[in-house]
Prior knowledge:
Blueprint lengths: L14 H18 L13 E6 L5 H12 L3 E6 L11 H10 L4 E6 L4 H7 L6 E7 L5 H16 L12 E5 L6 H12 L3 E5 L15 E3 L2 H7 L4 E4 L15 H8 L3 H6 L5 E3 L12 H4 L6 H21 L8
Parallel strand pairs: 1-2, 1-3, 3-4, 5-6, 5-8, 6-7, 8-9
Helix pairs in contact: 1-5, 1-11, 2-11, 5-6, 5-11
This protein binds N-carbamoyl-L-aspartate.
N-carbamoyl-L-aspartate (NCD) binds next to helix 2 and helix 6.
Amino acid sequence: MMMNRNLLSAADLSRDQAVEILDIAEGMADVNDREIKKLPTLRGKTVVNLFFEDSTRTRISFELAAKRLSADVINFSAKGSSVSKGESLKDTAQTLEAMGADAVVIRHGASGAANVLAHSGWINGAIVNAGDGTHEHPTQALLDAFTMRKRLHGKASAGRSLDGVKVAIVGDILHSRVARSNLLLLNTLGAEVHFVAPPTLLPANASNMKATLHYSLDEVLENETPEVVMMLRVQAERMNASYFPSEREYARIWGFNADRLAKLKPGAMVMHPGPMNRGLEIDAISADSPQSTVLGQVANGVSVRMAVLFSVLSGERANHVN
Length: 322
Ligand code: NCD
């Protein structure tokens, strides 16, 4: 199947393309279980990780993914680079282009930064969005879908979508690119999405989104009995006002805890993209419980990013004119 040259939004993927990436990731996961975790697939290709915003998991995950496919990897973080001397995104991009980057993985604080780069003509290589402001984080949505599929269907995952799976996404939806990309991809894959948040942390256009809105986590756990509860980090760095009375109130009403864990149906899972604020949106007992997929998500992230880099770099490169 024809894969896109860029991955900017979870909405870029058709259902077949999304399932194909998850299937390729399944194969990559087998490689990651071997003693020698390496494929020659991207030998001779250069992948640049262009990170203007702090990140632990995502940057390391992309780095490992590229290395396991034998690509050369350059990690470029805005701190300590000429960007902090005022060099523009354009100059930075043109410099990377001149060095022959085949793919640029970009994380940026501004929503739309990956799209700007992809449509600028400054770079011929593939662009992968690794998180742009409060907008999107498509590889996180893919690794979350991969985690759900694996947990629900095990070895019988290949080729499957998430038809009919009920997913509750809980907390700071307003500031969450993870929630936005998950909503898009989960809809594409046939899952049923429920947003649960204080009214102040729902986007203004939430009622137009393909999700059912709720204000009470307990009601959702009791009435909807979701297979997946995805807790979101309270993104204090993006908050310029007070969106809830106090942290203690937030934890009591919207935080995941042992009582709520006990309400999950058998086989249900608790997800969190990390980094977790333990004691705020999730307590230690549930974060470290067998139902928690937090570390599984991290491990799956490497396999999924291998699949994404493989897909964008091995497809038709009709526009690539060097
Ligand atoms: C997320 C992000 O950066 O958007 N983290 C991640 O990529 N693992 C979620 C978050 O920061 O809360």
